[in-house]
Structures are given as structure tokens and as C-alpha cells.
Amino acid sequence: MQRSELVKYRLPDVPGVYLFKRGGNVLYVGKATSLADRVRSYFDDDLIATRGPRIVDMVTKADRLAYETAPTVLEALVREAALIKRYHPPANVEGKDDSSFLYAVVTKEEIPRVLALRGKDIDVRHKRSSDGQDLKALYGPFPSGAQLRAALRLIQRIFPFFDTPRPVGVKSKHQAAKIEFNAQIGQYPKNMKFTLRSPIGQDKVNLKAYRKSIRKIELFLSGRGKELRGKLEREMRRAAREERFEDAAAARRELSALDHVQDVSLIKDEFLEDARRGAARAGRIEAYDTAHISGTNAVGVMTVVEDGAPLKREYRTFRIRGFKKNDDIASLKEILSRRLAHPEWPYPRAIVVDGGRAQKKAAEAVLEEAGVAIPVASVVKDERHRPREVVGARSAGVSEADAVLANAEAHRFSLARHRRARSGAMRTVRVLRSGPGLLP
């Protein structure tokens, strides 16, 4: 396809899903906050740098476009997943491990739960999770795990559901407290509190109402938002005719919530994706390293190299607190997870870590769990801590020289920060030893 061909489609500036096609075959499915802006971005001059060769090849092969509008970004997200499941578009799924995708599942229990599970934890054929839990339904795959979790939080505000790690009826003080608290804030159904202190199923009226709500969630997650709206409208009119005014008001509130859901988190995620592409054009690379002696005063750092030059104002330091031993992989996972908790920091075009393939895989696992697509390269050192090999530089789209520069800067900065942390600790020890009641 060519950019000039977009005119005939008259893409609107509203949320929705789009399908790149070649003849009758769907090559790619995506969702957008603005269909017009998102589809136009596939024809930017720097597409290969920002999206990669697979997407460039897809756009070149495509000869037509289809799209559907959606009332909200939330509905566009679940519709995207439903279409990916239906068509298995090659540009979405080829070369990717199905086990890495996340699915929304509904458990097959007396009191169903709605959970987000990774593909590797599901036996799709037998509809069963890896821990032996039978599943009533599963929806997906969802390309972004972070967006799926955000979507489920939004849906939970409209149709409260249980998402406890264990079945609702399992006796556990911790789980009981969680159910009690989440019921109070509206994330769990309040009329199901009986499960904390009474045998499951004792309140058949409440259980019937909850299962009815679960069926609405299933309709929504299957991408049938219009059908769900029709169902709620019929439910509201019937309740009004029968003078069940509370039920009619409840259906009206659900309809209104669907139409006015504040899907800010999903919109923000798309803006961040645009920001990541902008950062990629600028050539931003982030490097990570840790320093510690026998697991004490462990410090992790993030350094930034942009266009071959250190960007020191954007360096960050993390005091490692999640482990007690010399575990470089665990500390790397911790600092990268904490960095991803700051999406307001520009995302890089690539990440460089210190170590071999194990460290590279660990970083990739954290990024995958967060639903963030940033390539990773690792710098392998020899016994004298000199760079011996760069793993994954080409696939990450960075030169070996830039990867080594970023790694060296991270190593220098981590040692400097660790020395500062150690000296602070030593000063504290000296003060304590000479304080009141202690021998100098």
C-alpha cells in the first residue's frame, strides 16, 4: 500500500481496530485511540527503524485496509484480541511464542473468577490452567500484558468480579481480608460477602446475580460490545415494565459506565508507544549494571547514551532491596522492573545489560511481563572484566561500539554510586560505635 491510498478510506479520528489485508487474507490487526493517526503512522519514512522489518514487509504486501470504530479504547482493545484469535494474522503472531501472550480467563467454578494468565500456564485444548483449574472460557491472546491488566481493572469497575489467586471458597485469613476490602471499594461484588463466613451456595439469589454478571463480562471480553449493550437495554426496559425499578437503574448505570469508561490508562499507553518510537528515532540507549560486595550495599544504576553521547542528567540509581545474596540476575530484574514503573521517563530504542545470555533473557522476561517491546543486547566480559562479545546488538538495532560505550558508562557509574553507599554506611557504623553506651 501507498500513503496516497489512505484518502479513499476516510479514516475517522476515533478509537477502533484496523486490519491490513492482501486480498481476502488478513496480514495484521491493530487497535488505535485515533484510527486516522495510527494508520497514517505506518507510512512514515522511518517505519523500519520504529516498527521493524516485519511490519515494513506487511505494509508493502498489503493492498487494502478495513477498520471498525469502537465507542472506547477499552472496547477497541478487546476487539483487537478477538480478531487476532479469529484470523491469526502473520505479522501479529509469526515468530512469536504463543506461551508469552496473556489471556483473560473465566474459571469453571461455583463462584467463577476472572484472571489474566500467560499462555504457558494454560492447556488451551483441554481448557485447564497449569495448576489444574478447569476454565469455562478464555479470551485472547492480548499483544500487551500491561494493557490486558489495565483493561480488566476497568471492566471490574463496571461489573465487579473476583480475581483471587485461589478459589473464593478456600479458607484463608489473607484471602478473606482481601475479599472484604475489595468488596468495600467496589472491585468485588458486595452481595457476595456471604462467601467469607457461610457455605458456598447458601445465598442462591446472590450467586445467580453474580453468574449473570459474569456472562456480561464474557460477552464484553469476546469483543461483542454491541451485543452486550443490546442485552442491557432490553434488561432495563423489561425491568421498568415489571416495575423492578432498582434493577432497571442498575442496568442503566452499567450502560452509562460502558459508554463513559475512563480508559485513560489505555490511552496513555498508546501515547507512550508513540513516545517510545520518538525516542527510538533519537537513538536513545539505556544500560543497566549493579555493584555490591558479598551482597552488601547493593546498588543498581541506569545510564543513558543518546546519539553516541552520555546523557548524565537522566542517570538513575536504585538501592537493591529485593534479595540478600550475590544474585546479579535478581538485582537486574528488580531495577528493570522499578524503571518500568516510571513510564514518564522516555523509553529507549534498546537496552544494554552487563553479562551473558542469562542476563539478556532475564531482562527480556521482565519486559515481556510488562508488555513492553524493547530489544535487549548484553555485553559479555572476560576474566579481566574487558568486553569480549556483544550478544544481540544487530537484532537490537545498535552498533557494538554503542553497546560497549553504554555498558562501560553503566559500570563506571555503578562503581561510583556503590563507593558512595559504602562510605555512608561506614560513617554510620563509626557514629554508632562511638555513641552513648558504646565503647569507642
Give an overview of the whole structure.
It is a single chain. This protein has 15 helices and 15 strands. Residues 193-203 and 425-440 have low confidence and may be disordered. Strands 9, 10, 11, 12, 13, 14 and 15 form a 7-stranded mixed sheet that branches. The protein folds into 3 domains: 3-93, GIY-YIG endonuclease; 101-223, no CATH class; 283-431, Nucleotidyltransferase, domain 5 (2-Layer Sandwich). 45% of the residues lie in helices and 20% in strands. The chain is of the alpha+beta class. A hairpin with a 2-residue loop joins β10 and β11. It starts with 15 loop residues before the first strand and ends in a 7-residue tail after the last helix. α9 (225-241) runs antiparallel to α10 (245-259) and α12 (328-340) packs parallel to α13.
Quick recap of the structure?
This protein is of the alpha+beta class and 440 residues long.
Q: Helical region count?
A: 15
Second CATH tier, the architecture of the largest domain: 2-Layer Sandwich
Our Rg estimate from Cα atoms comes to 26 Å
Strand portion = 15-25%
Q: Share of helix among residues?
A: 40-55%
Query: What is the average of the pLDDT values?
Result: 82
CATH class of the largest domain: Alpha Beta
- Distance separating the two termini: 79 Å
CATH topology of the largest domain: Nucleotidyltransferase, domain 5
Q: Low-confidence parts lasting 5 or more residues at pLDDT below 50?
A: 193-203, 425-440
- CATH homologous superfamily annotation of the largest domain: UvrC, RNAse H endonuclease domain
The major sheet is characterized as:
7 strands, mixed
Structural class: alpha+beta
Count the strands? Answer: 15
The tally of structural domains comes to: 3
Order of helices and strands: EEHHHEHHEEEEEHHHHHHEEEEHEHEEHH
Q: What characteristic shape results from the CA principal axes?
A: globular
